[in-house]
Amino acid sequence: MKPKTQRLTLALLAVAAIAAAALLALSALKDQAAYFYTPSDAAKAHLQPGAAVRLGGMVEKGSLKRLPDGVTISFMTSVTCPRRSKARCTRARASRNDR
Fold first, then answer.
1. Dihedral angle sign, alpha carbons of residues 38, 42, 40, 93
2. pLDDT for residue 25 is more than 80
3. Phi-psi bin for 79: left (phi > 0), alpha (psi -120 to 50), beta?
4. Is residue 85's pLDDT more than 50?
5. With 60 as the cut, is the pLDDT of residue 88 above it?
6. Which of 2, 5, 17, 53 is such that its CA lies 20 to 30 A from the CA of 31?
7. Alpha-carbon torsion, ordered 22, 56, 41, 85, to 10 deg
8. 62: Cβ–Cβ under 8 A, 6 or more apart, which residues?
9. How confident is the model at residue 84 (pLDDT cuts 50, 70, 90)?
10. Is the pTM of this model over 0.70?
11. Where do runs of H (alpha helix) occur along 30-56?
12. At 57, phi and psi to the nearest 5?
C-alpha cells in the first residue's frame, strides 16, 4: 500500500472512531444532560417521587422547610412571569433529599 493511501485509511479510521465515541457518549447521557425542568414542565412530566432532577425557578420566600432528619429540604418554586404577559405564574412543590 502506498504511503498516501495508508495515511488516508488511517485518517478515515480515526474519524470513524471519534464519531463512534461521540455517539456512545451521547447515548449514555440521554436525559442526563444539563437540562433542567421548569416547575410547569416538572408538573407535566409526572416525575417519579425521589427522582433526582434539576429544577429551575425561584424559591418562594418563606417556603423553605428543613425536616428533622437534617437531610430533606422542601420548598415551593415559582416561575416569574414577564410584566406584559397575562400568563399565570405556576407553582410547583419540590423536595430535595441528598441521601
1. negative
2. yes
3. beta
4. no
5. no
6. 17
7. -120
8. none
9. very low
10. no
11. 39-45
12. 130, 180
Can you read off the three cell numbers belonging to residue 22? 461521540
Parse the chain into domains and list their residue ranges: 1-32, 34-99
User: Look-up: residue for cell 424559591?
Assistant: 59
Q: How far apart are CA 36 and CA 30, in angstroms?
A: 13
**63 and 75 Cβ atoms separated by less than 8 Å:** yes
Q: Mean pLDDT over residues 78-86, rounded?
A: 53
Cell of residue 53, nine digits? 432532577
Question: Could you tell me how many residues make up the chain?
Answer: 99
**What does the block give as the cell for 24?**
456512545
Q: How far apart are CA 3 and CA 20, in angstroms?
A: 26
Whole-number average pLDDT of the chain: 76
User: What CA–CA distance (Å, rounded) separates 42 from 7?
Assistant: 51
Q: What is the mean pLDDT of residues 28-46?
A: 74
